[in-house]
Amino acid sequence: MFEFASAQRKHSFPWDLPISTRLRMLQDGDVKVAYFYPTPDTSTFRYRCFNTACAINAYVDAMSASWFSNKDDDQHLEVVAKAADTVVICRAAYTGKVARFIQIARRWGARVLFDCDDYVFDYREIPSIVSAQGQVRDGDMESVWNTWFGWAGRLKLVMEMCEGLIVTNDYMAEQARQVTNLPISVIPNFMGDDQVAYSSELAQARDQAGNRRNGRIAVGYFSGSPSHVRDFGLVAGALRQLLWERSDVDLRIVGHLDLEDTDLAGMEDRVERLPLVHYLELQRLIAQTEISLSPLELTRFNNCKSELKYFDAGAVSVPTIASATYTMSAAITSGVNGLICDDYDWLGALTWLIDNYDSAGVEMGRQARQHCLDTYTPRQVVSTIVSVVKGDEGH
Q: With 50 as the cut, is the pLDDT of residue 266 above it?
């Protein structure tokens, strides 16, 4: 693997601030934006609440933003609801606490929006979501269906209590119009400044190392949740054949994935398994590979997903081979800043990129990095955020 001068670091979570600090952040500007997410995490919360709030605070004069959650008591949330000009409820299912927060905010004149980064508020998608996660089984499924359909209904109810919907791409916006009459706006996922800065350091280290490790190729699959078992199945057979035929290829898997249910069962000795890590540490692990994989079944649910796996890898000059979903096809010009792969040709795409890595793969990674810096940074997205939260843009 690549070795970096910065090596492994201990990273903290920058959103772990006391309520007093977050309230002061909210009240700093003339126009105040409050984000609410049930429990802060490194996925949806980071992209949809923390990154957006930080972009406003860093790049917009006279506006301020902060983030809040179920950890904050009702008294503090009431202060937030009364102070905010815009409240963004992010992927929160109905509870009495959420409902009261919305009601107080609207009573005090705030504009309340609902933000969702996956197509999970349409109950018609639940069977395919459950199937993709491998939860369909013989026997009693009653509790599974009750959980999922109940969650989708609670999300939809909160969404309908709001005045507008924010999603991550135009395809998802079009699908959402089938189930709601709310005005819909698009704010894409993007990197935070901390991710941009650390990724730049890692990309520079890759350049200094020649973007290549002593004749070996590491292929990486970075899974943030257990919902990708069937998606990984698209590429598992190709990876098995590749590892069987080529001793110069390594496979790194980070995150949730059970290999027992894939074509890689029995080849665990050829696979480096790593647990979920801090999001900045993940950038280091991606930077230690040559190729990132993003296989997704071409379903409505997956076409609603963002291109974050592309820009996470591109930020550290690693090219991605991706399925032809809506956002990946829009982000990747195949053969220029990555590869778009047909579901039946993963082995061909992998073999070609491995064989041509020095001549084509390194340049794809550099092109991906430049595209990501031009497209998925706070500076590039903040004007869209401001237009949406102020109500200047909507569909």
A: yes
